[in-house]
Design goal:
about 350 residues; binds 3,4-dihydroxyphenylalanine; rod-shaped; seven-stranded mixed β-sheet
Length: about 350
């Protein structure tokens, strides 16, 4: 029996040392130590032994069991350790790898310049007002001295919600809305989106932005208009910027003008950018038409005012030398991150 026990021990140790998984190890444990295992079989047969032999074999059997148990436990620990080591190896982090860049958003160039305009005009005492993009025909046309059938409507075709409601074609309706609510003195700018039925190309978009300006008070003259807008142009484009006013026609101002600034590329000499003119047009303006004042219950015999409308896209394009307006709306980061 002694030999049998020693044989079991060396077999068990041999098998424990060669297992590769928990399942195999468990199988070895059942095989030697289980209820029907080999060692148990030996112990069962001990009844046949003599009284002298029994304690000796019994002690040996216990030692063998203890050794096998120990070996199994050690194998188990080794295996767990190997698993952890393997996992750590697999999940190793290379701390020298460059991190992932977190992209930080930035202001859209249209907004950057719009806020410059806010600074310039609020610095001159203007306040900022906003009005609806879905507007009554009355405010967009009628109250601005553009009756139904007026040819000016042709150049400002838009989306009609119904006969009386349109997507506004200009921010000028804010002149009327402001004068209805507020009594002079008035100094306000009104930025916002406007809509026209125009096909998209490098210089046209059915949606674009304007900034309207309105000043109404006693004794306002064309001199105030020219002075204010010249200061604006110099603040925006630099002190060496020259301006010129060309007579023009708008139904809601009289007299009306367009203001040009000296070309920032050639400074007035004439170049391809300004088409040889030396100047580039940036806004429309004029003295508020007496009819418009009257319509808002402001007496044109007592009060006078001037108004102007700036195309935001146009001045931003000039500022940054952008030659295609579609770039503003495409949200291409290669474009937007340049500003
Ligand atoms: N609303 C005009 C347009 O969209 C621009 C304009 C011209 C606005 C003269 C004005 C102004 O306030 O006085 O073409």
């Amino acid at each position: 029996m002694k030999e049998q026990l020693n044989q079991i021990l060396s077999q068990a140790l041999g098998q424990v040392s060669s297992v590769t998984s928990q399942q195999e190890l468990e199988a070895v444990r059942v095989k030697f130590l289980g209820k029907k295992g080999e060692l148990t079989g030996i112990l069962r047969g001990m009844g046949k032994l003599s009284a002298e032999e029994r304690p000796v074999i019994g002690q040996l059997a216990n030692e063998v069991r203890a050794q096998i148990e120990q070996a199994i436990e050690k194998a188990q620990q080794d295996m767990a350790q190997r698993l952890i080591a393997a996992k750590l190896e697999k999940e190793q982090i290379d701390v020298t790898m460059p991190g992932q860049k977190v992209l930080l958003g930035k202001q859209h160039p249209l907004n950057t310049v719009l806020h410059e305009l806010y600074d310039i005009f609020t610095g001159m005492g203007f306040s900022i007002a906003e009005g609806p993009e879905v507007e009554y025909d009355y405010y967009n046309f009628e109250a601005l001295n553009i009756p139904k059938n007026h040819p000016a409507r042709d150049t400002q075709d838009t989306f009609y919600i119904n006969d009386n409601i349109v997507l506004r074609t200009q921010t000028s309706p804010m002149q009327v809305r402001t004068m209805e609510k507020q009594r002079p003195p008035i100094r306000v700018i009104a930025p916002g989106r406007v809509y026209r039925s125009d096909a998209v190309d490098a210089t046209h978009s059915p949606v674009f932005h304007q900034i309207e300006g309105l000043v109404v008070d006693k004794g306002i003259t064309m001199g105030d208009l020219k002075g204010t807008l010249e200061v604006f142009a110099k603040r925006l484009y630099g002190e060496d910027t020259g301006v010129r006013f060309r007579p023009h026609h708008f139904p809601f101002t009289e007299p009306s003008a367009e203001m040009d600034v000296t070309c920032f590329k050639c400074h007035g000499k004439g170049c391809p950018l300004c088409k040889g003119e030396g100047y580039i047009e940036i806004l429309g303006c004029g003295m508020v038409h007496p009819k418009v004042l009257l319509g808002c219950d402001i007496d044109p015999e007592v009060y006078s005012g001037f108004a102007f409308g700036i195309g935001l896209e146009r001045i931003v394009m000039q500022r940054y030398k952008i030659d295609d307006l579609r770039l503003f709306y495409e949200n291409d980061l290669r474009f937007l991150t340049q500003f």
